Amino acid sequence: MTDFPWLLTMIAVPAVGAAVVAALPRGREETAKQAALGVSLLVLLLAVLATVAFDAGGERFQLTTSVPWIPDFGVDFALGVDGIALVMLLLIGVLVPVVVLASWRDEPTGHRSMKTFFAWLLLLESLMVGVFAATDVFLFYVFFEAMLVPMYFLIGSFGGPRRQYAAVKFFLYSLVGGLVMLAAVIGLYVVSAGELGEGTFAFDALRGMEIDPGMQKLLFLGFFVAFAIKAPLVPFHTWLPDSGAEAPIGGSVLLVGVLDKVGTFGFLRYCLPLFPDASRDLAPYVLALAVAGVLYAALLAMGQSDMKRLVSYTSIAHFGFIALGIFAFTTEAATGAVLYMVNHGIATGLLFLVVGMLIARGGSRQVGDYGGVAAQAPLLAGVFLVAGLASLALPGTNSFVSEFLVLIGSFPTRPVFTVLATVGIVLAALYVLLLYQRTMHGPPRGVLLEPSPETSAPATGGGGGATAATATLEAPPPAPARLRVRDLSRRELAVAAPMVALVIALGVYPQPLIDLIEPAVAATMSDVGADPAGVSPEAPVEGTD
Amino acid sequence: MIEAPDLSLAALAPLLFVFGAACVGVLVEAFAPRESRHPVQVAVALVGTLGGLVSSLLLAGERQVTAGGALAVDGAAVFLQATIAGLGALSLLLFAERSLDPARSAFVAAAAVPAGSPRDRELITAPRVQTEVYPLATFAIGGMMLFVAANDLLVMFVALEVLSLPLYLISGLARRRRLLSQEAAVKYFLLGAFASAFFLYGLALVYGATGSIRLSAIREASAGEAGGGVLLVLGLALLVVGLMFKASVAPFHAWTPDVYQGAPTPVTAFMAACTKVAAFGAILRLLYVAFGTDEWTWRPLVYGIAIVSMVVGAVLGLTQTDLKRMLAYSSIAHAGFLLTGVLGYGSGADGTGSGLGATMFYLLAYGLTTIGAFAVLTLVRDGDGEATHLSKWAGLGRRSPLTAAVMALFLLALAGIPLTSGFTGKFAVFRAAIDDGAWPLVVVALLASAVAAFFYVRVIVLMYFSEPAVDGPTVGVPGLPTTLVLAVTVTATVVLGVVPGAVLDLAQQAAIFVG
């Protein structure tokens, strides 16, 4: 079972699926949707099976495949996963079918077809799997950059009113980061040629090198800038609110749920093990950015009137927490950070989805355009509440476990930064609860208000021009405003239910994931030469049960 | 008594093929009846260039100096000759396209008729087609192939003229917007003549300093007491100016945007691809065979020029609103990227010329992509010929998804996005330059790439994310020749991006100069 090329299949299946969906004749939208759903479920199945085949206590990289790709550059098409990459693959496997289902009824602007949307989505899935599964730095870079193209088209073709601006901004920010990283990737190769006698991009070979400290810092910065733009850390974050707000909901979910995780994943996989000295020396600066991000983005989130922008800013705050956990250099904090990456994908993904469902009903992204929805649509409000509470890391939801692990793990080594970041939790409660309260409770208001019954009388009255005229002439007093909101449809329930279930399940019993993550994190921490033992991550978890 | 120089006909076969075809073309022009001229000319030119391609492929691994020492047939020469012949054949196919323009050709029927005269208006819709372009272009291709194999400065100069003169002519032959085309031709001719004069003056100075025009002899002399002398350095500088002009490297680029815009688009494709390959072939040979000494170096000069070219190309490209001009500035930026590879020669991890192989690969990849991009330009037309203004391309993705997708692929390749040939090429030259310790240069190159990416991406935005204009252009259905060109270039752009191993290996093995 372990000999089966799981990772290659997980890359190939959605890629082929994308080609098939794109090749479907015009007008076969339904077939395209079903095919996309089928393919993405198949990938989920593969991810689960790969997890079964994975031995958490075994070697660091498993399920490996390697074939020479460009011998002249010393590049291999080398795939393999450790526990960290594996949980990200699981996250991808879960999110993509959910996104496909959530986008089922989307009506694209203009004459674009949803067929194209699903084709790009599947291609994106294939490249996302590749980026987490690559164990060759060059291959990682290729996936890292290639991933931009489908996302660019998803935002630019299917996004909101300012989609052109957002798409170009997204593309250029990421491309600049990628090019800086390219310089570092080439530099790493040249260094390896000097160090090992033969240039290589293989992660395992590069990890063992002793690089001169000055050079380490330069290379570290090259990688760091790319990842900090991707993640994004303040001050490299300004593209995310635009992209997150303008992308179609499905795109936003994958953007903050998975794509941005490549940044934090990159810190953990590449920055720390390859440049341990530089990581240690520069950690205080990174932590300062991380904590600044937690506080600054939380404050900005409170000030947003656009719901999708608001959720994007909350993500930036969460990424601050993740970076804090990674650069605190304890196994516990970093395990928490990886768990946070998964949990954030689920919690914020769910928040984006439910916000999207609300927007689909009202057609506006403004917080002020909604109010009192809960009375009419209790299911919608309930899911909204779960997503919100998961986002503010209430105990019992999945995010609590990871946030707690990050904070408790960071405190011994970085008390000041940890205390400052804790303030972010309070702010998170504020922005989430304010959003929930304004849209779901209070007096009914906004775009979902039904016109008063009198003016709509002609429709029910059935003809009678005279009656309608008298009705308007009488100019009745403003009728008590009524909201008319559909509650969640069965399709929407099918989207939300698995996510809600995961929020609760991982909040109560995260141990299986931690078991997968921890050995890989411990190995990374020993690469960086920091406290490999750490405090046992089980301890705080039991407290949440 | 004069001894006959040694002459290896086998080694000269590619040149003989192409020049032979050009001469036959002239005869066809004189003797074949008008109605059968076009197909015959196309066939002759294609046979010549493809013959040149095949025979140079058969010469792979050849290493000799022949024709009395005037020609070097080595790995680099053969590789570049094959590249030029192949790209030349593709360009000729674009020349031969007859189904796009309602007048059945991109070339003016009679160039000597004054533009705008009654006769000219008559000819604009006349079924008569221009066929002199085929022998002219074939001569230019032959000159380019000679250029990259020239082992002494005089042959290099002759080749420079043989390749330039037909180009001056055919850039003035556009059927539409004739004044613009003629202006381009005159500009190109005047500036080109100036550049040739620089080259000739440099040649004279170098001869004065070293007493020889043979590249290997110059190398010996320049390593000796003449090395670093004022005459020699000045001569080198002038030679470099002459060559950089042809390669459209800033600050010698002033002609490029105007000529690229004014010339008929197939000719622009031809110039952008083939002339660049030839000029860089000559630059590499001159710098490494004649001046590749360890005693002193021209590196700072090329270093500076590379930076200027990348910055000028990327920054001025931003302000362009015409696609042909935009691609011209892109070509200037790419010339800068190529120079980073030139600087990386002789610094490979195994001590061989990784930079030379990388530059040759880049030339091949860039040439194919750029021909493809110009081929797409010939498809998008309105009543006044090709619609090259950016605004006309709005919403093309909706109107004609396939055309837009192909163009987007070429633009992504030019921007250097992974899994396209452009990325592989860039990676190869940057690696060579970093190997050589040219860190700062690569950082500038990456920044310039990022800036340049903006204008490529802007076109994609226009094509895909904008609403189509009401009076937008139509997308012509290409005939067989253009379809063939697009198929080849798209395939090459993808293949050289996804599985470049074999070709990179070939370029690396061919990276040998004899001299």
Automatic annotation (TrEMBL), chain A:
Residues 446-473 are annotated as: Disordered. It comes from the Bacteria. It comes from Geodermatophilus poikilotrophus. The keyword Transferase does not apply. One of its GO terms (cellular component) is endomembrane system. GO terms for biological process: ATP synthesis coupled electron transport; electron transport coupled proton transport. It is found in: Endomembrane system; Membrane. It holds the Pfam family Proton_antipo_M. Signal peptide: none annotated. InterPro entries: NADH_Q_OxRdtase_chainM/4, NADH_UbQ_OxRdtase, ND/Mrp_TM. It is a multi-pass membrane protein. Belongs to the complex I subunit 4 family. The keyword Lipid metabolism does not apply. Residues 134-427 form the NADH:quinone oxidoreductase/Mrp antiporter transmembrane domain. This is NADH dehydrogenase subunit M. The chain crosses the membrane at residues 6-24, 36-57, 77-104, 116-134, 140-158, 170-191, 218-240, 252-270, 282-303, 310-331, 337-360, 372-396, 416-436, 492-509. GO terms for molecular function: NADH dehydrogenase (ubiquinone) activity; NADH dehydrogenase activity; ubiquinone binding. Its main location: membrane. Keywords: Membrane, Transmembrane, Transmembrane helix.
TrEMBL record, chain B:
NDH-1 shuttles electrons from NADH, via FMN and iron-sulfur (Fe-S) centers, to quinones in the respiratory chain. The immediate electron acceptor for the enzyme in this species is believed to be a menaquinone. Couples the redox reaction to proton translocation (for every two electrons transferred, four hydrogen ions are translocated across the cytoplasmic membrane), and thus conserves the redox energy in a proton gradient. Residues 150-449 form the NADH:quinone oxidoreductase/Mrp antiporter transmembrane domain. Its EC number is 7.1.1.-. The keyword ATP-binding does not apply. The keyword Transport applies. GO terms for molecular function: NADH dehydrogenase (quinone) (non-electrogenic) activity; NADH dehydrogenase (ubiquinone) activity; quinone binding. It is found in: Cell membrane; Endomembrane system; Membrane. It catalyses: a quinone + NADH + 5 H(+)(in) = a quinol + NAD(+) + 4 H(+)(out). InterPro entries: NADH-Q_OxRdtase_suN/2, ND/Mrp_TM. This is NADH-quinone oxidoreductase subunit N. HAMAP family: NDH1_NuoN_1. It is an enzyme of class 7 (translocase). Keywords: Cell membrane, Membrane, NAD, Quinone, Translocase, Transmembrane, Transmembrane helix, Transport. Coiled coil: none annotated. GO terms for cellular component: endomembrane system; plasma membrane. The chain crosses the membrane at residues 40-59, 71-96, 153-174, 186-209, 229-255, 267-288, 300-319, 326-348, 360-380, 401-419, 439-465, 477-499. NDH-1 is composed of 14 different subunits. Subunits NuoA, H, J, K, L, M, N constitute the membrane sector of the complex. Belongs to the complex I subunit 2 family. Its main location: membrane. GO terms for biological process: ATP synthesis coupled electron transport. It comes from Geodermatophilus poikilotrophus. It is a multi-pass membrane protein.
